[in-house]
Request: fold
Amino acid sequence: MKENKDIEECIVKVKELTEDEKLERLVFLRERARMDEESLKDEGFEEGKKTMIINLYSIANMPIEQIAKVAEMSEEEVEKILENK
Reply:
């Protein structure tokens, strides 16, 4: 992840250039916000994938084997999602 490496390098440079605690805190908070945002995107993606699987099975009557291929998951993983819907 080049972006993480770039951010880490920026943090090091800021610490070297200044002892300003407020600026260091802002850098920390920005990185934390970015990580939180990525986490939410991942969670949203997984929820969307589960909804897609359930709809393909319930509404489209698609076989589990085909759903697994579309979702790039094993048939067992798809079955587990469908059991817990």
